[in-house]
Every structure is written in C-alpha cells, then in structure tokens.
Amino acid sequence: MELLKQRILEQGEGIGSDIVKVDMFLNHQIDVELLCEIGKEFHRLFAAASINKIVTIEASGIGIACIAAQYFSVPVVFAKKGQNKNVGSDVYTANVHSFTKGTDTVIGISKKYLHADDRVLIIDDFLANGEACNGLIDIIERQAGAEVAGIGIVIEKGFQLGGQALRARGYHVESLAVIQSIENGNILFG
Amino acid sequence: MELLKQRILEQGEGIGSDIVKVDMFLNHQIDVELLCEIGKEFHRLFAAASINKIVTIEASGIGIACIAAQYFSVPVVFAKKGQNKNVGSDVYTANVHSFTKGTDTVIGISKKYLHADDRVLIIDDFLANGEACNGLIDIIERQAGAEVAGIGIVIEKGFQLGGQALRARGYHVESLAVIQSIENGNILFG
Description:
2 copies of one chain form a homodimer.
Chain A: H1 2-11, E1 13-15, E2 19-21, E3 29-30, H2 32-46, E4 53-57, H3 60-72, E5 76-81, E6 91-98, E7 103-110, E8 119-127, H4 131-143, E9 147-157, H5 162-168, E10 173-183, E11 186-189
Parallel strand pairs in A: 4-5, 4-8, 8-9, 9-10
Antiparallel strand pairs in A: 1-2, 5-7, 6-7, 10-11
C-alpha cells in the first residue's frame, strides 16, 4: 500500500536493525484518515473471505480493527492483556511471548464472543515473530473451534519469520507494508 | 442517547451496587455500528467546540475515540498505561488511581503529540470518580498548556462524583448515558 509506505518513510523512525517507530500516525497518535484507507484496503483484500468477526489484541490493534470493521459491517472482539477480573472466568487464554520486550503476557477472550461457526479476520498493527498471531490462532481455532479466514497486518517485519511461518501453515496473510531491513535509520521495503 | 440506554438495558449487566458490565458491545466485543452512532452524537454535542484533537486512554477508549474522530476529522492520541519504552523519555505523565481495582497506574503521552495551541476533546468509555479524566486534564492543561474543550463520556456513573466535580470546575462534560443506580441487577438511568 503505497500511501502507507510513503507515510512510514516520512514519519516512521528506524532504530537499530529491527525497530520501527510509527507512533506519529499509528500507535500513539493515530491518523484516522490514514486508518480509513487501511481499513478499505483490508476490505478489498479480504472481501471474499466471508468473515463475520474481526479479532485483535489491545491496545494498538483496537483502533485499526474498529475502523476496518466498518467496511465489513462486523463486530470487533479484542483480546485483553493480563489477568482481568472484568472479563470473567469463562475465558479462552493464551500465553504470548514478546521477543522485543523479553516478557510473557497472558491474553484472554471471553468464551461468549467466539463460537465454532465464526469466520475470523485477525487484524494487528505489527507482525514480527508471529507470537501474538499464534496466541490468537490457538484461541480462535484450537480452543473455540472457529476458523481464521484471514490475517491482516499493517506492518510486517519481513526479516523476522512470523509471516513466513504463518503462510507456510496455509494462512491467508496480507501485510500492507513489508519492511525488508532497517540500516542506519533507513527503512527498506520488500 | 436512547439507542445506547436501550442497549445497556438489553445487554448490560448490573453487578452489586456500582458495576455495570458492557463487554457485549462496548469494551470487549465492540458493536462498531453502535460506535458510529455514538461518534455522531459526540460530534453533534461538541461540533461548536472547535477541537483539533481527541485524547483518550488505552485500551477501551481507543475504538470509541477513533470512530468519533472520523466525524471531527481530527487525529486521536491515546495515553499509554505503564512505563512503556516505546513512548520514549520525553513524556508527560500522571498517576491514575482506580477505586474499582484499588491500583495506581501511570499514564503517559509523548510531548510530541500535545501542544499549547491544542483544543482537546477527551473521550472515554466510563466516568465514575473521574480519576482518569483528572489525570488527562493534568497532562493536557497543566503540563502541555493546552485546553480541554470538552469531555465526552459514553457511560457516567451518576452515583459517583467525578462528573459533578468536573462540571463544577467548568468543564463541558457530556455523558450519553447516566446511570443513577444499580439495584438487584436493575440499571436505572438518571
């Protein structure tokens, strides 16, 4: 998606060899106009997937998922992080390891909001090693018995192996911008 | 907002005397169609406030703020919870005490995304004791020198004193549903 790549080049910040900061427009300040274009693009890419629900993880996935959901006319369910008493006890959970932060986080979705006949589009801001996606897939498919009909990612770190592994398992993954490398602050797309 | 009150009565769950669970449509599963009506209503109520930015707190405020922002054509900035290295060191912070959870949380907004000439609409899902709002006001007004031009709340707990105190300080607070009491599972509006 050219508009997005352009924005990453203009306002993104490459740090070291594997971090790209996009908090100017995507995950701290949010350019909602750009999000609408991202949402339309996800709808174009997954229009044929007959989804009935979008699932994401708090926090930065929520805005993207809600804006995209308008074009699909489906509800959003977001996985909550940490033990949250407001979710209740009837919860599917998965453990998500973050290589970046070196931490483990429990994510949870109430059993009330995932059913065996759901066709789910997973949406997230970043795909790197795929740990968050794998946690959601475990919840959606293995635990709830539903189907992951697509995975829509705003920015994929192509130099990490999450996307490759998900595609090898047969998932329909669409990333709107794939970063091939970050060198001396320069962000290069694949 | 009748549509919202109706939904709270149909799908909300009153627990004890002070908790209302709306995770069916607002803060776990999100009915984006309802969110659009909420966003339009906020726009109607604050159209004259000449805002240029919406500020909220992760996580459940983000979807509401992003959908509403479309009708104002302004960006969203969400305060991050906890110490987050991705925000950087140049951050306004405030301490938010939660009476419900009995915990203290640091919230932070990068100095890059708040300026002295900003006219901010604060949006959040709930207003109870007003601690989250007070933290945001401290960041926006006292620290950044900007102006809070309005506070838009989806559900206010009218039996707690946050809204009353904010209005007494002169803030333009609009709550789309004000709950007066919760008794034996029954939710009564003010």
